[in-house]
Amino acid sequence: MINSKLERILQKVQKPGRYVGGELNSVVKEKSEVEVRFAFCFPDTYEIGMSHLGIKILYSLFNEKPYIWCERVFAPWIDMEAEMQKNGLPLYALESGDPVRDFDFIGFTLQYELSYTNILQMLKLAGVPVLAKDRKELFNIVVGGGPCACNPEPIADFFDLFFLGDGEEVDLEVIELYRKCRKAGASKEEFLREAAKIEGVYVPSLYDVVYNADGTVQRYIPKDGAPEKIRKRNCMDLDAMYFPESFVVPNIDVVFDRATVEVLRGCIRGCRFCQAGFLYRPFREKSVETLSRQARSLCETTGYDEVSLSSLSTTDHTKLFELLDELHTWTEDSKVSVTLPSLRVDKFSVELTEKIKSIRKGGLTFAPEAGTQRMRDVINKNVTEEELKKTVSIAFNNGWEHIKLYFMIGLPTETDEDVTGITELGHKVVDWYYEAENRRKGRPVSVTASAAAFVPKPFTPFQWFGQDTIETLEHKQKLLKSTVRNRKLTVNYHGAETSFLEAVFARGDRRLSAVLLEAHRRGLHFDGWGDCFDFDAWMRIFADLGVDPAFYANRTRSFDEVFPWDHLDYGIRKEFLIEECKRAYRAETTPNCAEKCSGCGAACFGGGICIAKRN
Amino acid sequence: MRKEIRIWFSKKGASRFISHLNLNRCMSRAIHRAKLPVWYTEGYNPHVFLSFAAPLSLGFEGERESMDIRLIEEMPYDLLLERLNAGLPPDIRAYEVTEPVMKPGEIAFAEYHIVFSGGDPEGTSEALWRILHNDALIVEKKTKKGAQQVDILPYFKNAGILVLGGGVMMDVTLPAGSEGSVNPSLFLEAVEPHLGASVLAKVQRLRLLDREKREFR
Questions:
Q1: Average pLDDT of the segment spanning A349-353
Q2: How deeply is B75 buried, as exposed, middle or buried, from its count of CB atoms within 10 A (0-12, 13-18, 19+)?
Q3: Interface mutation target, options A19, A24, A27, A333, chain B, most CBs of B under 10 Å
Q4: A2: confidence class by pLDDT, cuts 50, 70, 90
Q5: Could you count the other beta carbons within 10 Å of the beta carbon of residue A517?
Q6: Residue A87: which CATH number?
Q7: What φ, ψ does residue A217 adopt, rounded to 5°?
Q8: Are residues A213 and A304 in the same domain?
Q9: How near does any CA of chain B get to the CA of A61, in Å?
C-alpha cells in the first residue's frame, strides 16, 4: 500500500510504523469481491487506538462477512498530518492504502469527549464534508458508537447515525440494510429512515429540538416515523456473543500490547460517579470455559505471552478463582502470564497474588476515589478505611513497597476536609507500612496519590450536578499539595481545564456542534494531548460565538429539567437516578447488584444479574 | 540438546519501519506462536533467547538478515520456516536455516543497493557522479563523544552507479561492524540538496561481509 508519495513523507515523520499497516493478522481482501467497505476510525493516535479492545472486536466481526471489508484508520500525529496536507495525500486506510473518501461507511468510536475535534480533523483530511447535511449521497455514511454515544448531541450535526449499546449485532444489521438500499437504488434519506427502525440506532437528523427561553431543552420531536425513545442494544448471552479468535498484532510499541479477553460486561457496584457502571448494565459474565477458550485462541494466533482479563471490575467475576485455575492448566506450559488490569480494595488477598504472578511486578494500584468515609458513601464506593488498611498491609507484608492510590476531587458535597482527607489517608498508608511486621526492610516505602477532577456525566446520579469551577478545583489542588507532610507521600493532580471542557461536551446539546465546527476551523485538535491543548483558544471560541460553557459544565440542574439525552434509553430509569442522587446527598449507600436489586430498570433487558439468583 | 541455528530472513515493505527493538519482540512472538522447540531464558519472566547479527536501520530493506536461536530438539528446517512465517508480518519472510559458521563479531562490512527513483535519472546520475568525484564529502556524524565532522567520501570510492529503467542504482560496500560503521543515510542526507526534489532514495542491505569481504555465514 506504500506509494512513492507516502514513501517520501514517511522519511520525514516520527514513528512511520504508525502509518503503513502490514501487521500480522491484518485483513486484506480483494476490492472487487466485497460490496461494503467500512473505514473504522479511531480519533486518536495508532498507539492509543491499537490498544482498544472494541475496535478489535468489531474489526474481526465485520471482516468475517465475505461481503464487508473493514479497515483501520487512526488520527495522524501533527507532523504526519502537516506532511499529508502539504503533499496532497488524503487520509487513507491502513490495509489497502485507499482514501477514506472511497468508503461506504466511515465509523468513529466515541471514547472521549476531547477527541471530538479529531473526528472533524479526520473527515477534513479525508476530504469528506464534515456536516451530515452536506453529504447527500447514499455513500460515506458517517456512524459512531461507544460510551459517548449516550449523549451524542454536541456531535449530532456531523454524524448520520449512532449505535447505542453493544455493537455486536446492530452494526451488522445496519450494514446489511445499507447493502440492500444500495442495490435497490434508495436515497440516503430512505436508508436513514429505515435504519431508525432498528433497535439501538439513533438518527439525529430525524429529531427537531425545541428549547426553552432559559436555554434548556423543552422537547425532542421525532420526524418521519422515528421512535420517540431510542433504546440501546444489549447482547444478553456473552458466551454466544461474537469474540475474535485473533487480533491484529502491532509492529510498533502501543500502550497495551497483549491479548485481552473481556470477562464480563457491566458492573454490579453502582458507584455514582461512574458512567460506564450505568451504561453497560446489566452485569453479564462469560463462563470459565468460554474465557479460557478465547484467551487460548488469542495467544495461539498472535504469539502474545500475556493475556489480560479485562472488564470494569474483573474481581467481581463470580468464578474468578476457578477461571484463574483453569487458565493455569495451559498458560504455564505455553509460557503465558495472566494479568488483571485493576483491583478493588476489598478484593485483594494473598490467594489472589499467588494465582496471578504478574501482580508481583512493580507497584500496586487501588482506587479509594475519595479521602473520607462520608465522601466515599456519597459516591457509593463502598470501600472502608479498614479494608484499605487490610489490603495495603497484606501488600506490605508480601514484599510490596510502592502503592498508588487514585482519587477524585470536585465530587458533590465535597468540603475542604474531604480534600485534606486524601492526604491524610495517604499519610496513614505510609504509617501502615511501618506497622507491617513482615515488610521488606531496607527499602523506602512510596505512596502516590493521584487526584483527577470529577466530570459529571449523563446517565449517572450526578448528571444534575454543577461541576466545580476551575477556580474551586485549583483551590482544592493547592490544598492537596499544601497538606503533604511526608516525603514518602507524593500527591499529584491533573487537568482542571481539560476536565472543564470534557464536562461541557459530556452534557452538551446540539448547539455545541457550532462550537466544535469553529474550533475545527481554527485548527484545534488533539485536545486530549498536553502539547496540543489550548484552553485560551477554546475560551475565545465560546466568547466569540456567545456560548456560555458554564451553562453546560457548572450549572446545577433541577430534577425536572429535560436533558438532551432523555430520548435515549439505556434501560436506567430517570426516577432511579434521582433517588440515587438524593441518597448521595444524604451520604446513604446503595447495595450492589449482587446483594440486592435496587430497581434501576436494567431488568427490562431480561438477563444477566437481573434474573440471576443472588447469594 | 542445545543447538545454535541461524535463520535467514528478508525484511521489506511495511516491515522496514519496524525498529530493531520491535523486531526482537516481533520475532519472539512469532517463535512463541510457532511453538518452536527453542531455549527460553531462565528467570522470572522467561523469554525466547534470540540474537541478531547486525541491527538494520529503520526504513532500510534487508535482503539477507539473520537471527540466531537455540533449538532444544531437532526439527525439520522446512517445517520450522513454515511455522515461523505463519506468525510473522507478511513483509518479513524467513527463507533459510543454517548452522552458524561465523560469529556476528566477525562482521566488518555491509553491501548496500540504493535505488534513486523519480526525477530525471540522467540528472540524478550526473549529480551523484559529481559528488563522488569531489575532494571530500564532509558530514556530521553523531558518536558517543558528540557530533564529529567526518569525510565519508573515501568509503564511497568503490560505489557503482547505473542508470536503469526510470531510476538510478548505486551499489556500495561500507564498513559495518564493531570497528566502526558508515551508515548510507549519512551519504543520502549530504547529497539530498543536490538531487531533484522529486527524487526518492530507497536503501536495501543485500548482505553482510567479514573483514576479508567474505559473505557472513
A1: 84
A2: middle
A3: A24
A4: confident
A5: 18
A6: 3.40.50.280
A7: -75, 135
A8: no
A9: 21
B83 vs A: CB within 8 A: no
In the numeric block, which cell numbers belong to residue A257? 500490547
Locus of grid cell 436515497: A187
Q: Which one of A7, A28, A256, A305 makes the best mutation probe of the B interface by having the most chain B beta carbons within 10 Å? A: A305
Rg (CA), chain A: 24
Q: How many CA atoms lie within 13 A of B127 on its CB side?
A: 19
pTM metric for this prediction:
0.94
ipTM of the complex: 0.90
Number of domains in chain A: 2
- In A356-438, alpha helices (H): 373-378, 385-397, 416-435
Q: Which of A597, A570, A591, A607 is nearest to A279 (CA)?
A: A570
Contact B19/A301, CB-based, under 8 Å? no
What is the rounded CA–CA span in Å between residue A544 and residue A505? Answer: 18
Could you give the domains of chain B? 3-100 (3.30.70.580), 105-210 (3.30.70)
What does the pLDDT average to over A47-71? 97
Does the distance separating the beta carbons of B15 and A7 come in below 8 Å? no
> Residues 288 to 317 of A: which have CB under 8 A from any B CB?
300-305
For residue B98, which phi and psi values (nearest 5 degrees)?
-135, 170
Q: pLDDT tens-digit profile of A194-234?
A: 999 999 999 999 999 999 999 999 999 999 999 999 999 99
**Which of these, A104, A75, A40, lies nearest to A248 by C-alpha position?**
A40
